[in-house]
Design a protein that fits this description.
Elements lengths: L5 H5 L7 H15 L8 H17 L2 H17 L13 H7 L1 H8 L6 H5 L14 E7 L1 H6 L1 E12 L15 E2 L8 E6 L2 E6 L8 E2 L12 E12 L8 E4 L15 E7 L6 E3 L2 E9 H6 L1 E7 L2 E7 L8 E4 L17 E8 L6 H14 L15 H11 L2
Parallel strand pairs: 1-9, 11-15
Antiparallel strand pairs: 2-7, 3-6, 4-5, 8-9, 10-11, 12-13, 14-15
Helix pairs in contact: 2-3
């Protein structure tokens, strides 16, 4: 996926000075902060996007590389720049830009600081980030339910340092700026304001020898497999929230959630509307006139239906309870299956067939005459086209 221009992300001109860039980022951070937009994944993505843009444009070296070579230059590491876009969750951003959030909100966010900080200002248990995974299933699987094994990447504690971030056998040193408290005190007249230490970012400690395996991040990417149960009745675009199946927490914090987004493939013969299933059945004009019994496919296999004598194009046959099972929150039970009839007229006839039809026409005294009343539209295909358009 192509990235947006970083200046566009922050809403500044390319010649903007550092204070203007910082001010623009602060405004974006306030607007899209997760605590102001709970559950809004789009806002969280914009929050991460703004942090990534600020990380590049606030550094003179990386900004120069970006101005000259764009995103490709950063990906190649030109001019000493390193790859960007590594913010996996909002906690990474709070940790990386703690001084800015301290200036803005006092303790790291609208409540984010309360989640991240323990007593004495040092980092306490942190909940793992939520993860998103998209899964595609077919129409019948959505109707009947399915078990599916999914595979995705997540950040886990580094196996070399165990998440401590430093080389094994080494210990972090006490931050000289805050004396290990994780916060610094500013005096303004008769007021005292305590903010997160900008040097250790509230940790109270500094890593002097970062772990060679994870580069001092304390976490590494790992493939994970998980078997999930997709219940019968889910629809396209539904998001399933699997609590505790997201990224593991830090420092003893709980795991995040996994958001499973369902994508249902279109079926060549069925169209879903709510919990009802619609299909069409082409019958001969003879069966329409005389009536007929036949089997039609449903999401649960074939079902016999009876076509009444004198059936007209566009009429329907209702199969009660043969539609999509309803989710428990919608009361249980199931929708219906609606079969739309269309009558096929033969385009070519043998001489014998023509003779028989001619005799039938004489017997019935059939004549061609104008329609005196408005006929119903029998275009079943147009019905299906409109139905698909309505469903997006």
């Amino acid at each position: 996926m192509s990235k947006r221009d970083y200046y566009e992300v922050l809403g500044v001109e390319r010649g903007a000075d550092p204070p203007a860039i910082k001010k623009a980022y602060r405004a974006r951070a306030v607007e899209f902060h997760p605590d102001r937009n709970p559950g809004d994944h789009a806002a969280e993505d914009r929050f991460k996007e703004a942090a990534e843009a600020y990380e590049v444009l606030s550094n003179p070296q990386t900004r120069a590389v970006y101005d000259q070579l764009g995103h490709d230059g950063l990906r190649r590491g030109g001019g000493g720049a390193s790859p960007f876009g590594g913010f996996q969750n909002v906690e990474d951003i709070f940790n990386h830009f703690g001084d800015i959030f301290s200036d803005m909100f006092g303790f790291g966010g609208f409540g984010g600081g309360g989640r991240r900080r323990g007593g004495g200002g040092r980092a306490g248990p942190a909940r793992g980030s939520d993860l998103r995974h998209d899964i595609e299933i077919d129409f019948v699987e959505a109707a009947t339910g399915v078990k599916r094994e999914i595979q995705f990447e997540e950040l886990v504690p580094c196996t070399r340092c165990g998440g401590a971030r430093g080389e094994p056998g080494t210990s972090p040193t006490t931050c000289p700026r805050c004396d290990g408290r994780g916060q610094v005190v500013h005096t303004q007249g008769m007021f005292m304001l305590s903010t997160t230490c900008p040097q250790c970012r509230g940790e109270g400690q500094l890593i002097t020898r970062p772990c060679k395996e994870c580069g001092g991040q304390g976490r590494a990417r790992q493939e994970r497999k998980l078997t999930v149960d997709v219940p019968a009745g889910v629809d396209h675009g539904v998001t399933m929230r699997l609590r505790g199946k997201g990224a593991p927490g830090e420092r003893g914090g709980p795991a995040g959630d996994l958001h499973l987004v369902i994508h249902v493939k279109e079926h060549p013969d069925f169209v879903r509307k709510g919990y009802d299933v619609h299909s069409e059945l082409a019958i001969s004009f003879v069966h329409a006139a005389l009536g007929h019994k036949t089997a039609v496919p449903t999401v649960f296999g074939e079902q016999e239906i009876e076509i009444l004598r004198g059936s007209q194009p566009g009429q329907t046959v209702l199969l009660k309870g043969k539609g999509i099972p309803k989710l428990p929150q919608d009361g249980g039970g199931a929708g219906n299956h609606v079969v739309h009839l269309t009558v096929e007229i033969p385009e070519e006839l043998t001489p014998g067939q023509e003779k028989l039809l001619g005799e039938l026409a004489k017997e019935l005294e059939l004549e061609v005459h104008p329609v005196k009343k408005k006929a119903k539209k029998s275009g079943i295909r147009s019905f299906f086209d409109k139905l698909r358009e309505d469903l997006g």
